[in-house]
Amino acid sequence: MNALHLAQNRYSTKKYQSKPIPSEKVEALKEILRLSPSSINIQPWKFTFIQDEAVKSRLAEASSFNESKIKQADLLVVFSVAEDLDAFQKVVDKELPEALRDWYNQGRASMPEAELKVWFSRQLYISLGMGLAGCAALGLDATPMEGISSDDFAQILNLTEYKPLIAMSVGFAAEDDYNRLEVVPKSRRALEEVVDSI
Ligand SMILES: Cc1cc2nc3c(=O)[nH]c(=O)nc-3n(C[C@H](O)[C@H](O)[C@H](O)COP(=O)(O)O)c2cc1C
Fold first, then answer.
1. Atom of ligand 1 nearest to the CA of 14
2. Nearest atom, ligand 1, residue 148 CA
3. Residue-number span of the structural domain to which 133 is assigned
4. Residue 108 pLDDT > 80
5. Which of 53, 90, 146, 186 is catalytic?
6. I need a labelling partner for 26 at 20 to 30 A (CA). Which of 18, 117, 193, 194 fits?
7. What's the total number of domains in the chain?
8. Is 146 one of the annotated active-site residues of the chain?
9. Domain membership flag for residue 60
10. pLDDT higher than 70, residue 105
11. What CATH number did the domain enclosing 41 receive?
């Protein structure tokens, strides 16, 4: 399938089959997320892949209306953003080339912490887009999710320096998923409303 077909055919799955994902596809998805682009290549993220049923179940119970999807799907990916700026500074100092490090350090010195964290969060959404497109390309169904409890997720996953922001369940859609495209056709605003060509 080409990129347009993938965009036309992916959708947010609401019901999954209990079918495992081949491990090479899980590994490919990890690499796709690692390769996500970000502003000044800052990469302020941690991607946690959860297939352990007991942990996945606890996370599902901290996800209100997303509970059943998380329990059914073979994989849950949690996208967490750098929260402890001093801890993340060590990553920057160790891993970013000098020019980008200087850029970041100037930004950190001049920007309120809250603004810096909003900028970090924006980068996570780029990786979510990469993840959704990557799943489609790998022949996997997925659901992006903001409906999670960040505090509960952090506690269950024992994350202290990163804060869970979004999640994505991944697997194979159930035959009777009520959100399948045959049941609920893709719905978007008209092209001419959202795209200007000059
Ligand atoms: C950032 C983001 C957060 C979302 N959160 C949820 C969610 O918590 N639960 C859910 O079932 N769908 C969630 N969705 C799915 C959207 O409702 C869905 O993408 C939108 O209605 C378009 O439908 P489609 O993805 O099937 O094309 C989310 C989508 C995005 C991009």
1. 11
2. 8
3. 3-182
4. yes
5. 146
6. 117
7. 1
8. yes
9. yes
10. yes
11. 3.40.109.10
Are 134 and 29 within 8 A, CB to CB? yes
Q: Is residue 192 part of a domain?
A: no
Written as six digits, the tokens of 116 are 């810096």
Q: Could you read off the pLDDT of 154-172 as tens digits, one per residue?
A: 999 999 999 999 999 999 9
Chain centroid to Cα 119, Å, comes to 16
Please check whether residue 83 is in contact with residue 161, taking contact to mean a CB–CB distance below 8 angstroms. yes
Q: Summarize pLDDT for 15-36 with one digit per residue, the tens.
A: 999 999 999 999 999 999 999 9
The whole-number pLDDT of residue 1 equals 65
Q: Whose CA is closest to 148, among 164, 172, 129?
A: 164
**Ligand 1 pocket, 12 CB below 6 A?**
yes
189 found inside a domain: no
The reply to whether 193 falls in a domain is no
Q: Is 27 a catalytic residue?
A: no
Pocket test for ligand 1, best of 6, 8, 12 (most atoms within 8 A of CB): 12
